[in-house]
Specification:
The protein has 388 residues and is an alpha+beta fold. It has 3 domains: 43-56 and 206-387, Elongation Factor Tu (Ef-tu), domain 3 (Beta Barrel); 65-93 and 170-203, Beta Barrel (OB fold (Dihydrolipoamide Acetyltransferase, E2P)), CATH 2.40.50.100; 96-164, Helix hairpin bin (Helix Hairpins, Orthogonal Bundle). Helix content is 29%, strand content 35%. It is built from 5 helices and 21 strands. The chain has helices at 2-31, 95-130, 136-168, 215-221, 383-387, and strands at 34-40, 42-57, 61-64, 70-75, 82-83, 88-92, 171-173, 178-180, 190-191, 199-202, 207-214, 232-237, 245-252, 262-269, 280-297, 302-304, 307-313, 319-330, 333-338, 345-347, 360-364. Strands 2-11-14-13-12-15 form a 6-stranded antiparallel beta barrel. The protein has a 4-stranded antiparallel beta sheet with strand order 3-10-8-5, with no helix packed on it. Helix 2 packs antiparallel against helix 3 (136-168). The longest helix has 36 residues, at 95-130. The model is unreliable at 7-13, 15-29 and 378-388 (pLDDT under 50).
Length: 388
């Protein structure tokens, strides 16, 4: 009897120890589950972007050349300054031209005196002819002389106007508003009319950006766009992380370039905050159609050979492999056009530390999209709701 009691006691102790051992093991397995950030996918109204490279151009650009020859007497601007139309930039030695003006003024005065005498003789000839005191031939000669004096005076006055213009052109003024470059020719040097480039000026209040859109893209996404619509665009300069400059399309060429299969388009930027002609830039143009698409962090998407996938959280917090088709990128987020639906929960950081089939300890986080532009303008996000 004692032997049976001892056996039962030993068996009970063994079962108790076994149960105690299994419970810590289960707790240990739960404690070793990988904690992973997860979030529910977003659904946002978005537009498809098209990006083009370009260089900025000034609407007005002048290579300043003198209209008359002469020696530079004064440079009246600071290099790199902003100038206004009509500002004095260079002054040439005006004395030779002033002398020509003075000479012609004297010749005009002499011609006016000669004309006055010819007018008097012509009037006298009319009276004498009526009394038959002079011959008709003499009267006609005086009339002809009057006409010659009138023509000579008119020619001299025209020469005087031209001479005054030449004198005026010795003051070389800015033909446009803009930013002036350095002086290519300095004080004391002789310059030639229409040949010597003194400096250059570019307008700076507005900038143009020309870019070429391929025919297929234009017909698919922008066929209804007209220049008068002022289709909005955004621009990013070299070294910038965001598309900080907003402009609009103000010119669309009248034909497709048959050699390249592209259409020339121009964007205009009126608010010039540090834009310079010749700068390299990237233009983003958005299609008019606004659609709702699933949005996920770009880092949540993994690559498997030619496929793209995300890891979704399934039953029992087991990660599942989901093939996806991706669309446009918006900041640190990307649109998913196929493979996910609203309500799906994904591993935010992708397959960096985990893989499909793994159980995880989910840590739910919120996807922050503040400051991310999913449409070209903030008001465009309401367009989708208005259409519904």
């Amino acid at each position: 009897m004692n032997k049976h009691l001892i056996a039962i006691a030993v068996l009970g102790a063994s079962l108790a120890l076994s149960g105690c051992a299994e419970e810590p093991a289960q707790q240990s397995n739960q404690q070793h589950l990988q904690p992973i950030d997860v979030a529910e996918v977003l659904v946002k109204p978005v537009q498809n972007w098209h990006t083009y490279t370009t260089r900025l151009e000034a609407p007005e650009e002048v290579s300043l050349m003198p209209r008359v020859a002469g020696v530079i007497e004064q440079i009246a601007f600071n290099e790199g300054d902003t100038v206004k139309q009509g500002d004095l930039l260079f002054k040439l030695d005006a004395r030779p031209y002033a002398a020509v003006v003075a000479s012609l003024e004297a010749q005009v005065a002499s011609a006016e005196a000669a004309l006055s005498q010819a007018q008097s003789e012509a009037k006298r000839a009319v009276r004498l002819t009526e009394r038959k005191a002079i011959s008709t031939e003499q009267a006609e000669s005086r009339t002809s002389m009057l006409q010659q004096r009138e023509a000579q005076l008119a020619a001299l006055k025209a020469q005087l106007i031209a001479a005054n213009l030449d004198l005026e052109f010795t003051d070389i003024r800015s033909p446009i508003d803009g930013v002036i470059s350095r002086a290519n020719i300095t004080k004391g040097n002789n310059v030639l009319a229409g040949q010597s480039v003194l400096t250059s000026i570019v307008s700076n209040q507005t900038m143009y950006a020309y870019f070429d859109v391929d025919e297929r893209t234009w017909n698919h996404s922008f066929s209804q766009v007209a220049a008068a619509d002022h289709q909005q665009v955004v621009m990013q300069k070299v070294g910038q992380s965001t598309f900080a400059h907003t402009g609009y399309i103000d010119f669309i060429d009248n034909q497709i370039n048959a050699a390249t299969g592209t259409l020339r388009v121009r964007a205009r930027f009126d608010e010039n905050t540090g834009l310079r002609a010749g700068s390299f830039a990237r233009i983003k143009l958005a299609a008019n159609d606004i659609t709702e698409q699933v949005i996920v962090p770009d880092k949540a998407i993994g690559t498997d050979l030619k496929n793209r996938f995300v890891l979704t959280v399934g039953e029992g917090n087991i990660l599942e492999y989901k093939l996806v088709t991706t669309g446009e990128r918006y900041g640190s987020f990307r649109a998913v056009t196929a493979g996910l639906k609203a309500g799906d929960v994904i591993a935010v950081n992708g397959p960096a530390r985990v893989g499909p089939g793994m159980p995880i300890a989910p840590n739910t986080v919120t996807l922050d999209t503040e400051g991310v532009a999913f449409t070209l303008s903030p008001t465009a996000q309401h367009t989708l709701m208005a259409k519904k």
